[in-house]
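discrete fold record:
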Amino acid sequence: MGIAIENEIIWHAPNGDVIACVEKNKVMRENFDEIRQVCQDALEDAVLMGCDEQQFRAVLGELVARLASQYPQQD
């Protein structure tokens, strides 16, 4: 669960507690920024090569939906 407030995401633990650690939030922000840029670049490449933008978005969404963590969720 994430609630965006002007580009800032408030991250939550599985129990609903807000992740308040400054360093954890910094890492999450940096990771998310990198992911956003890679996805943006890939979208632009796809469109420039003539691919359907909506299909790209659907495939990207499916990729994210199929991701699995190798770590157990912390409660």
Remarks:
- Residues 24-68 form one domain.
- The beta strands are 2-5, 8-11.
- The radius of gyration is 15 Å.
- The first strand starts at residue 2 and ends at 5.
